[in-house]
Inverse folding.
């Protein structure tokens, strides 16, 4: 089924409502199913104890039984082709969450993560504007550059590998455009729900070199600004990682927290799922996020209250 939606900023857009693939994990596996264990023997960075996981049910795959009694574990997949695509001239954008699609169960985002947009900007093309509500906006320039101008007329530049956190007050928005007259820019933007009302305008940016993100989960955004990350007044942590073939990473989650894993480049293995560029996965009621690069890859990981 195809639905026609109209946006004032880009004309008539043809949108296919995204599908949701869900894997539900719970206890009480049927008898006669062979046992499967998952253990960790080596990783770079902090060590975690080997773990086992309860059986899972995936449509078309059936049950798999483990040795740990875990209830209501769930992984929700959002494939790249299921994102909403907006295209106008030499501006291409993909929205992981579609607030205008009432059939999208993730239309309001995931935990405090309201939006996750990927944009390819032609020369001197501007980013799509966000809503006029209070928002914490995070911008990541993967390739190219951005020139941004705030409401006071101050201008700045973001280059490759730079992240920027902007506390945007209701009704006030900065403008950001591709800083090149000849080359494209590849940019990611995320909106995070503010912790409270009365957000004060603020902006900060920082570059995180590839060498600092290779083979590890490098924190780039955190509530306390620790490890030279960008500070944010919200219980959210954002990690960036660049992986070589075979790199395996584990991130431990606190009780009641969720995680969103987004693949920017390459292919990674998350449990029984292959995630490719543009794919995302929401994890609920998990003790950790564990994934392996099946080819050179780049990922973003959100740890959310």
């Amino acid at each position: 089924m195809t639905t026609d939606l109209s946006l004032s900023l880009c004309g008539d857009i043809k949108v296919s409502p995204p599908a949701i693939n869900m894997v539900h994990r719970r206890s009480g596996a049927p008898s006669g199913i062979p046992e499967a264990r998952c253990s960790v023997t080596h990783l770079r960075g902090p060590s975690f104890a080997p773990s086992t996981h309860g059986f899972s049910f995936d449509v078309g795959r059936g049950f798999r039984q483990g040795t740990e009694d875990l209830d209501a574990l769930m992984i929700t997949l959002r494939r790249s082709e299921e994102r909403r695509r907006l295209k106008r001239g030499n501006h291409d954008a993909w929205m992981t969450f579609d607030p205008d699609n009432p059939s999208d169960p993730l239309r309001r985002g995931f935990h405090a993560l309201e939006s996750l947009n990927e944009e390819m900007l032609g020369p001197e093309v501007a980013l799509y504007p966000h809503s006029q509500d209070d928002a914490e906006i995070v911008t990541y320039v993967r390739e190219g550059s951005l020139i941004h101008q705030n409401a006071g007329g101050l201008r700045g530049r973001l280059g490759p590998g730079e992240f920027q956190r902007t506390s945007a007050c209701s009704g006030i928005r900065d403008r950001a455009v591709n800083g090149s007259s000849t080359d494209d820019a590849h940019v990611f933007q995320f909106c995070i729900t503010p912790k409270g009302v009365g957000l004060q305008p603020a902006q900060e940016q920082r570059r995180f070199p590839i060498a600092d993100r290779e083979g590890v989960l490098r924190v780039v955004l955190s509530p306390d600004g620790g490890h030279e990350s960008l500070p944010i007044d919200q219980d959210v942590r954002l990690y960036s990682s660049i992986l070589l073939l075979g790199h395996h990473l584990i991130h431990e989650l606190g009780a009641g927290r969720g995680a969103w894993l987004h693949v920017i480049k390459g292919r990674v293995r998350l449990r029984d799922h292959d995630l490719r560029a543009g794919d995302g996965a929401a994890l609920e009621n998990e003790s950790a996020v564990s994934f392996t690069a099946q080819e050179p890859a780049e990922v973003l990981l959100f740890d959310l209250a």
About this structure: Residues 1-72 have pLDDT under 50 and may be disordered. The first strand starts at residue 3 and ends at 7. The chain has one domain: 3-304. The helical segments are 210-213.
